[in-house]
Structure formats: C-alpha cells, structure tokens
Amino acid sequence: MRFIKPAGTSRGIMTTHKVWYVCLTSTTLPYKQGWGECAPLPGLSVDDRPDYESLLLSLSQRFEAEGRIDWAALKPYPSLYFGFESAWLQYERGDQLYFETDFSKGKTGIPINGLVWMGSLESMTSQVENLLSRGFSCIKFKIGALRFEDEWTLIRSIRKRFPVSALQIRVDANGAFTPEQAMARLHRLAELDIHSIEQPIKAGQWPAMARLTATSPLPIALDEELIGVHDQKSREALLDTIKPAYLVLKPSLHGGIEGCKSWIQLAEARQTGWWVTSALESNVGLTTIAQWCATLNNPLHQGLGTGSLYENNTCTALHIKGERLYHRPLQLAIPGSQKEKGQPEGGFLLNGQHFNWESLQAAYPSQHWPKSAHMDALMAFLSEWFDPSPTLTIQTSGSTGVPTSFKVPKSRLIYSARQTIQWFNLKEGDDCLLCLDLQFIAAKMMVIRALVGGLSLWIQAADGHPFKQTQQSFRFVPLVPMQVYNSLQHPAEKEALERCSTLLIGGAALSPELEQALQTVNTNVYASYGMAETLSHIALRKVNGKEASTWFTPLPGIHLSLTDTDCLRVEAPMLCVAPIETKDIAMLDEMGRFRILGRQDNLINTGGKKILAERLEATLSSYIKQPFAISKRPDTLLGERLVLVTEGPFDLTRLLGLEPAWTRPRELLVVDALPLTSSGKIDRATLEQWVNAQAPV
What we know:
With about 700 residues, this protein is α/β, with parallel strands linked by helices.
C-alpha cells in the first residue's frame, strides 16, 4: 500500500506498507468466500520476519490440505491469526458482513479520534486545523519526533483555543521518553489537561512503567507493551504489575480478535479502560476491526480513522462523517449464502425467472426454451463457474495478436464484481442486459455480477443492435462502441437506449463523433478502461453530463504509474498477482487520473517522426466520415510509410491541408470492410498484412 503522504511514526517515515490478503473459498460454492488481511508492521510486529510470505503460503497450503484452520499454529503470529480469523468470520456468514450490528447495517456510527502524525511543526499544525474543521472532538497527537518543548507548545496552543469540555486530547509517545525524563514530561503534559498518554517509555520495562503509572499525574495507556504477550498468565502478570489506566488494542498486533477479547476480559475485571485502534491496515482489515468494534459498545473514541491514508486502498463501504465512522452496506445478495424471500439456495434471476443451477439445466433446452447459441454459451460458462475448481479460464481479446488464455481464481472475479456493484450502486433485483460475447471477460463479468449481486440478468444474442427487439428498461447495460453507435442511428433503438439508467462502454475507444453524439443522450454513460488481465475495467470516466471528463479515474485499490516507455503500469493486488505493464501509452495527472494516447504496438516511425495511429485517427475523423484506419508499410526512405485504409473510395487530396505535413498518409488502400477482432476492435495485425500484400502505390 502507498501512503498519500509520508507517515511519521516512532519507527521512522513510512511511504509504503506491505500487506497480504487471504481468501477462503468453497469448492462447491465458489461465490462463497471470506477475505482477511495479514499486515505486520515492520520493526514492531512479533511476526515481522523475512520469510513472512513463505510462512503464509505454507500455512495456507497446509490448512487447505487438512480442510481446517489450525488456530494453535497461528497463535505465535498475530497478524496471520487476524488475517485468517477475518477471512473465516466472513466466510461463515457468506456475505459482506463480519458481524451484524446497527453499525454494519449503516444505522449508527462509531466515534473515532482524529490522528495527528509526527512531522514538522507546520505539518502538525495543519493537520490539527483540518481535523478541527471537520468536527473532531477527540484528537490524538503522535509525539516524540520533534523537540518536546515544540510539541508541548503546539498542544498548548490548541488547548488555549478549546477547553476540555470541547476537545479531548490524547498523546502517543510510542516509547519516546526515557524512564529518567518521563515523569517530568508527564507533569508538563498534565498542565494541558491531557486525557491520556500511550506508552511513554519503551516496552519491556515493567518495573519502570509500574512506577510511572503509580505516580503519574495523567492516565497511562499501554500499546506496544502488549505485543508478544500471548499466554493468559503473562497477560495477568503484566496488568497486575503495571496497573495501567487504559489498554490500546490492535488485532493485528495483539493476537487477532480473540486475543483482544482476552485482554478486554482481563482489563474489565481490573476496572481498566480500553479502546480499539487499527494498525495501518488497508480497508479490508479496517472493515473487520470496525465491525467487531461495533459489537463492543465502547463509548470512548476509537482509533479507526486510518482508511484514507493510502492512495491505492481497496474499495470499502466505510466512510467518515464528522467524527464518526459509518459503514454503508453494499446490499449484495450472495447466492448460496442465505435463503432469502423463500428462494432456494444458490439461486439467480435470469430472463425474469428464478433458477438455481440444477433447475436451469432442467429447463434448458426444452420445447418451451429452444436451443440458441447465446444460451449455450451461458450454460457452458455457468458449468465452469459452478465446477468445484477454484479457478476460471479467461481469454484475451486478441486485439494485438493471437488470443491467449489464462486461469484466474474465482475469488478475484468476485472481488471485481463487487467493486462494480458498489461503484454503480447496483441493488438486488436490478434489471441488467447482457448482449456481449461470452467468450470474453466483459460478458463473463456481467454474469458474475448478477450472481454475486442478486441482479436480474436478461440475456440475448451478441448483436450490433442490442435494443432492436426490446422495450424493457434496464438499470445497467455494458456495450461496445459499435452497439451504441448503431442504436443511435435508429429512433426506436435510441429511445430504448435512453430508457436505460447506466451504459458502460468498453472494448474499444470511443470515436470523437460517438462521444459528441452521446452528449445529448438522457442516460448516464461511462467509458471504461481495462483488459482481460485486470478482470474487466479498473478505471472509468463519465462521458456525458455535468461530471463528463476526458480523464479516466482509477477505481479504489488501483495504483497506476508509467514505465520508461510511458506505458501504463497497473498494480491491482486484489485482482492481479503481479503488476501489469501494458502497451498503452498514457499520460498521468497529479490526481492519479490518466488518458490513453495510443498503443505502443501502433507507434509508426516515419522519417524519424513517431506517430500514434490512434491519435492520428482522432485527428483525421474530422476529414473522413466513412470507416477508416491508419496502418503502415516498410519504406526505404522513411523507414515506415503511413497508409490510410478506408471502407470505400476516398480522395487523398482532401488531406493536403493537414498539418504538419508528415502526418498526411502517403498511400490509400480501399477495402470493403475493415478487419475486426471478435470483440469489435480493429484487427491491426490483419490490417497490416492487407497493406503489405498490396503493391506500393
């Protein structure tokens, strides 16, 4: 995970934080799954070790082979314990909740403290101002990075503006004080009406800490002191020796939820206060912690506001309003998880009827439901989906060469589906149209979204006129540009298109003409960027309306950068095992948005000038109204010669006004129809073969 801004901690400045995700799936119900996060803190977690990944892998393989999780084997590794514990909790429920409370249902929020990170005086002051403006009544300062007097002066300036009745101030020293200097500093901080101080001296000094808690003028909370203390007797001895006022509990550090429960029982038996905080987890771990915390009904401010730290965080239903953390339920119906509305387990909605896999096989084909190519394709896909195998075969589009196939875990496909469902706020029962080729990822993902989200899927043959034979209104429809263009040419089809709430266009770039035509359409239209390797789209842009943009915005959990050749590099840990270096030449802005300029494969070097075929095609679209494409052929003088390929005759002299002159095609090839891939993109490889088969003009 990448921090939006460097985070100052007692262990130095952090710019990244490495995490691992665990997913539990069922071989009989692949859509049933549970996610957990394993996120050790470098230099702090007892299980922070060089072989962490291999340990996680070996334990996962062992548990899979044995068909059970050995919790005793996980106990020495708190962050691993928490990851598997979280995954199991969600898997057992079979839905998006780990715990069912008013918080997880979106009815109430959890009070949280604002956090001021270590940094310069100016930086910390700016953070304070931001938190106060957002309505926080409890702020925790990370101290120990600056001179104590400077930090004390900053806190005093805040206390002068806000009395105790208006603002609670906590400080976290992370063991920054020595035992010799600690008491004097505690007295100074007490002058500022501090609520409590976490870990004033380093952990492991029980007698020294006990002396501080016995005589300190302000309450002391233990944090790092709890790390590595696993057995019950040692925990009791620690609390009875030190007698802290509070415990600060972190599941990733303190033995998972079960470990924290043990600390809570011991604390409450001794009338010791406590609160829960995250330990820089991504939204996956934070969601688990927050939902568990809500079951405890602790009235104190909790430390759960770290979800906005990362630029490439995973998607989440959590959001902060004022000083409270809320959970916005995704309202997903996971087939097979529960029996809802009297429907049989494993059900889904298809063409207005409810089926499960067994009943669908009995109903199709039949006299009332004759065979069709698109239904055969759906049945073949569902057969693979409901197969016990945890993986699914995906095929690339073949737009830049021969299509290839690869296997991907079904759990990753489910994550992609949930991400789309959340982004577009799709609800159970929403009508969605599928009129794409099920050979490719876009159509497969639409089926998976319907299965995962309880959507009502209407399927028809992949046709260039998807609205020709339907009068129905749809909540969500994925299309390719050609289908949208064709629909806009016929009033009745355009009217049907405009009855749809949302169109998602992908598979190829929008032409300037189509983009312009969509500005008058009364439907929310989005263009997508993605590929088979990213399991459909990983970025979107609004095409029409007030929020229209020419820039793609990556979805949560996606990090983008450019390679040395200015091609887009995609990091999507929940979707892809490793980063993907595309051949899409792009430009990034300071907000992380991007534009695609063209394909590196389609770069033409003519006379030392580099031209992207797609960019030149966009320019030529104002000169040429018939279908066309730019290609190339070898040239003795120029290296590569620009060739214009058109459907039907065209007069090249109409391009004489095009500047600069080196962007003018030197040659024309007239064809009956441009070659297209099965996904509707220009087949550039075939086009170039046609060009080179023609004698030079």
